[in-house]
Structures are given as structure tokens and as C-alpha cells.
Amino acid sequence: MTAEATTDFQFDPFAPTPVSALPPIWATLRDHFPVYRAAYDMWVVSRYEDVRFIQQNPQLFSSKPNADEASALPTDAADNPEQMERLMAVVAGFPQEVDVQELVNARTIVAADPPDHTRLRRIVNRGFTPGSIERIAAKIETIVDECLEGIETDEVYELVSRLAIPMPVAVIADLLGVEPAMRPKIKEWSDGIAAASVGDIRGTAEAATLAMTVMREFSEYLAPMIEQRRTDPKDDLISAMVRSMESETLTTPEALMMAQTIMAAGNETTTDLIGNAVVALYDHPDQLELLRADPALLPTAVEEALRFSTPIQFNFREALQDYEIAGTVIPKGATIIMYLAAANRDPRQFEEADTFRITRPVGGNLALGHGIHFCLGAHLARLEGRIALAKLLPHFDRFELDTASLGRNPFMVLHGVPAIPLTPKASRT
């Protein structure tokens, strides 16, 4: 069954919605409107098997909209001449060695289709193999220990600002070869990308100005770094990209866009994973007790947190031909919203799908993708999540959390908690 946006059931996937209201909406979509034609002429697909099928078939469904929807290019330029003037000033300030048009046109890996995707994936994959990620486990543990300093005595430990944000930022900075002094800038750039592409200003000249400012500042920093790595290569991802550029398999704009994508995706997902996992454990004390009694459940706890509170709620595809999904023909050229969060709560795939259960068998959830676009950083995100939760576990019993008072990320594409204040139990007695 298909629902048009003019029926009694109205749903805007981009509209801020209370987190408690989402599961019933997802159920309505899956049960009655598995292919829902929303505003913007986008088609929302919500059942697990349908989403997985789309992910499995890049020859039928292009990933191109992942760049188009996150491009932050203005749709109201004519109405905002002053903002457009500021945008052009930003563009004029790019480093001379960076061709802005080539940079804007460069295909990011999340938006590439074969054969470009195959080439880009092969270049960067060497830095994200399970073996290479496990080798940095000790460094991640050190970073987490630094983030947890003082937790034994602090009156309030704010988990997001002190652990969930700085830990993945430090890890991705080290992988890229970015010096520690630039870590705050990486977070600032990542937040700018999110605000411009999925925030309230999405689609405006203001968003384009913000996105281009981030791109300019990132290019100003990274372009000289790329040149330096040509003569003084390091054991980092930037050096690996430079080697590929010299063999003519990667262009400079592609390298800049790939590094920016890794920078943004490499910390946002892990930040939300850690925060969501801690909230879910406090919200389900029986599951927290299970984990405290058996830390061997950490891998399944991380996997369940990804499924139950999917960090990236949805992403996009384009139908390359008319194709029937769940009894509805999605027309060629249509933009599809693959609703990962709804699919991960599909009772057709997961028993008691709306229940947080850390003993659930590992595998199957779509939070980190499936098929050729399975998340490059999946092993890294899971390892970071396991290490963070393992080192937090001895401290859980000292704190309590008022989960009902927590806010949520205002961007519906991203699902996270902006602040998680852990308060010692003794302070409430």
C-alpha cells in the first residue's frame, strides 16, 4: 500500500519529532504505508527486507542522492542576495591550488556508485580493516582513560562533552594524521557540516555559506598537509591517499572530500552510539545489571544499542528505473529515503523489536549499512563503543541519570543526545 502526503496519515521525515513518538510512527509506516510518498517527492521505505534489498542492489538504486541531499547548495538564492554575496566571498577565499568547482563536483565515497565507488573504497579500505583497527585498541584505551579522568570524584560527569565527543574526534584525528591541537577544529567542522546539510537551515544560502566555509577552512589546512606528505609520508590515511594520487587513481579534490567525509562520519556516529548506549542502559536497569554481571556481553550490548537507537536514522538512494517495492512502483529518478531506524525495529526481522535486549544474537541490524556501502568505519565504531562502555562499567553504579529529562539532537537524520549529566546517587539523598 502506498500513502500519499494528502491522506490522513501525515509524515515528514525531516520534522523534529519527540523520540517517544517515533516507534508508533515507524510501526504505522511498516504496517500500512511501507512505501510512503512524503513531501519533497521523496519515497520513504521502512520495512527491513525492502531497505536491505535496496542496499544490496546498487545497479537498481544509485547512492548519488547522499551527496545531493548533503550538498547544502542553496534553493533560495534569488531571495537572499546578501547571503549569496557572502557565499561568493567565501568561494573567492579558497586556496589557489584548490579548484572549487572540481571540489564541489567531486564524488564522495558515500555517494559513489561502481566503478568509482570500487576505486575509492579500495584506496581507503586499507586503513579500516579489522586487523588495522584492532592494532590501535591500546591507543583508544589510553584516550578513553584520559577522558574519564576525575570521574571517581566529580559531582557531575557530563558524558557527551567529556567522553562521547572528544574520544572519537581524537581517534579519527590520529588516523588521518591530524595533530592534537586541531581536534577542536575537527569537531567544529563536523558540526558545521551537520548543521548545513540536515539542520534547520538546510537548503538555504546560509547553509551553503556555512558548508563552503567549512570546506574552505578544511582545504586551507589539508592541502598543505597533502603536499607535505608527498615528500615526508607518514603511517596515516592522508599519506595513503597521497600515494594513490601519485598513481593517478585519486584526484586532489576527491582526496579532500574523502578526508572531510571520514572526519565528519568518523566521529558523529560513534558519539551518538556511546551516548545512546549509556541512555538505553540506564533506561533499562535489568539490562545494565546483566552487563555488569557479565562484561562478555559488551559486543552484543553495542550491537543492540546500534539497532535500538540507530545513530543515522535514514539515508538516500535514487531509483535508476521504475521498480516495484511492497506493491508500489517507485518511478525512475525518484529519491528514496531508506528508513534504517524503522527497519531496525521491524518485528518481521527482530523478535520483540521495540525491546532493548543485550542478549539478542549479533548480526542483521542495518545501522552501519549493508552491501557495498557497508560502513568503512564499522569495526572502529564498534571497538570504540566496546572500550568506552567497558571502562564506564565500573562507574555506572555510582551515578544515576534522569533519562526523561534528556534532550535529543534536533536534526532528524542524526539520532543522539546533546548532553548526558551523570549525577552521583549520594547527591540525591
Strand order of the largest sheet: 1-2-3-9-6-4
Please tell me how large the radius of gyration is.
22 Å
Distance between the termini: 54 Å
What is the H/E order?
A: EHEEHEHHHHHHEHHHHHHHHEEEEHHEE
**Oligomer classification:** single chain
CATH architectural name of the largest domain? Orthogonal Bundle
Briefly note the structural class of the backbone. alpha+beta
Largest sheet: 6 strands, mixed
Q: Under the CATH scheme, which class of the largest domain?
A: Mainly Alpha
Coarse shape: globular
Query: According to CATH, what is the topology of the largest domain?
Result: Cytochrome p450
Low-confidence stretches: 73-78
Number of domains: 2
CATH superfamily of the largest domain: Cytochrome P450
Give a structural overview.
This protein is an alpha+beta fold and 429 residues long. The protein has two domains: 1-63 and 313-364, Uridine Diphospho-n-acetylenolpyruvylglucosamine Reductase, domain 2 (2-Layer Sandwich); 77-305 and 367-428, Orthogonal Bundle (Cytochrome p450), CATH 1.10.630. The chain is built from 18 helices and eleven strands. The strands form three sheets. The protein has a six-stranded mixed sheet, with helices on both faces. Strands 5-11-10 form a three-stranded antiparallel sheet. A two-stranded antiparallel sheet has the order 7-8. Helix 8 (137-147) crosses helix 18 (378-392). The longest helix has 32 residues, at 252-283. The protein is globular. Mean pLDDT is 86; it is low at 73-78.
